[in-house]
Write a structure and sequence with these properties.
Rossmann fold, alpha/beta, eight-stranded mixed β-sheet, about 220 residues, globular, 8 helices
Amino acid sequence: MEYQATRDRVETYFDRTATKTWERLTSDAPVSGIRATVRAGRDQMRDVLIGQLPDDLTGARILDAGCGTGALSFELAARGADMVGVDISPQLIDIALKRMPDATRGTMTFSVGDMFNPALGTFDHIVAMDSMIYYGADDIARILDGIAPRLNDNIVFTVAPRTPLLMAMWRVGKLFPRSDRSPTMIPHHPAKIATKTKGHLRELTRVNSGFYISQALEYRP
């Protein structure tokens, strides 16, 4: 129930409140100084996650879980991957479809839905950049272990690290009226998530770029 409630809040936020913001943030359009640090951080984190996958992805089936406007999917498709991009926001999927490069149209699909729906099938790799940052450790562990039987290699994903700055932002965010809140990121100690999973969790690079702070992790069954 907690997973479903969080997913519904995230869907409402991205589909009704923040669509234009994310469309601009994930483009080349000018943005404010604060958002520029977020854009730079996300670009850096995308490179970190891609770096955990083989250079040659020809024939590999990869899930971009919470694909948003598709930037990560486009890069992996260009390296030969058979991409499946899924997001709960129809608005963001529409943007991804419009931005899809002609050269990759035969190697990727985008759809609206739960990013870990079993009907999506089996994957060689899964990438989930900033799409699990709103969930608690128990939910994250259930997600990882639940998809393990359909995973041939690894999941690379991000969480919000439990730093003093993020904890302060988390506490301040809880003071806003509920109607004004974006979905609240839940800061984590990766070691705590590791104790709740049946697989193997490894800490990767942490990215600090102004208002973007994110920890990359790798999970293997």
